[in-house]
Amino acid sequence: MQSALTIGFLTPYSGVYPAYSAHLVTGWLLGMGLDPVRQRTVQFTSEYTHMGGAGASVDAARKLLFFNNVDILSGLISYKIAPDIIPLVENTKRPAFFFDMGEYIPHFPYLSPDVFYASHQLWQSEYALGKWAHSHFGDGGHMIMPVYEAGYHLHSAFKEGVTAAGSTQISMTVLPHNESDPKRMELDGLFTTLAKDPPPYVHAIFAGSMGTRFLEKWIQSGFHKKIPLLINETMAYDDVLEDIKHIDLEIYTSMMWMREDQSKANQQFVKKFESIAQQPANIYALMGYEAGLMWRELLPYAKKKDWDTVKQQLRAGVIDGPRGQKNFYPASGFALPTANILKISTTGNKINKLILDQGAGMRYDAKEFEVIHNESMTGWQNPFLCI
């Protein structure tokens, strides 16, 4: 009897989405056409990496590769720590297949032929929203975010989109961080500034419960519906808005996947996942499912440990999934996602979404992004939302 294909999964903690790894793995197995409950074809081994920093991730990767002897190394990691893990992967000659939300614009001083990336490309969502914001509301918007969110490329990608649309100015406020009270949100100074000189729009970038609290304070401020409010994609996910859908809210966002999308491929995914998980499909389940569609094709070679063929196909392969084409090797040019620009309103305890426009993606290696990498040599190691 052939042994199971083993996948080692680097698993950081996320207080925002505690069950993300279970959703991702369930989606992956469903994409492969396997029953997550009864299948014995693939075996996942999770290894906790704390907040996802380099030290903990490298130790976990070393254990999975050399002690557990897994066939494939996977998990949620940041591009910032990939260079620390790549030597371990290349030493084994086995493939690594990592997931990320796309909080950083990809940058690969060295691109390993053994390492593959399933990215949600959040930065693309921000770029599209910035481009639309300028063309729709005009020049001189104001971005606001806490220190944590400012450590990623989301605001940089938004600014690049604004600039591409012809903007000459955009303001930014980074909220001060209080070590003794990290959840403190001091907005009085910002609101005073906005009242004196109202911008054509405000773009808020927050993670987790801080985003919900910001929306509540925004409504109390008196600016609501007077200054258009644009929020980052993760602030607009259904499970986040669920907590505030009783408020009369009107916001704009950009989203690269919608559960409501009626395409056959998407509805097939949603129904499969929700019948197994008994909860709404989400972005992590989708990322896993897309990976599964690719690995379904690779399974015959992976079972035989024919890693050369597996890696060769991963470098060139493109899947057609719930949100269109997707590929996993940067050198083949990540398939450009389509971002829907949405107006979201909450009335009568319901979340209403109206698609206003569609924004096109941008190649990650476009020369316009070089300045972002050159100016931003630091950044958080923990994957976005792993707080």
Automatic annotation (TrEMBL):
<dbReference type="InterPro" id="IPR028082">
    <property type="entry name" value="Peripla_BP_I"/>
</dbReference>
<feature type="domain" description="Leucine-binding protein">
    <location>
        <begin position="5"/>
        <end position="346"/>
    </location>
</feature>
<protein>
    <submittedName>
        <fullName>ABC transporter substrate-binding protein</fullName>
    </submittedName>
</protein>
<comment type="similarity">
    <text>Belongs to the leucine-binding protein family.</text>
</comment>
<dbReference type="InterPro" id="IPR028081">
    <property type="entry name" value="Leu-bd"/>
</dbReference>
<keyword id="KW-0732">Signal</keyword>
<dbReference type="Pfam" id="PF13458">
    <property type="entry name" value="Peripla_BP_6"/>
</dbReference>
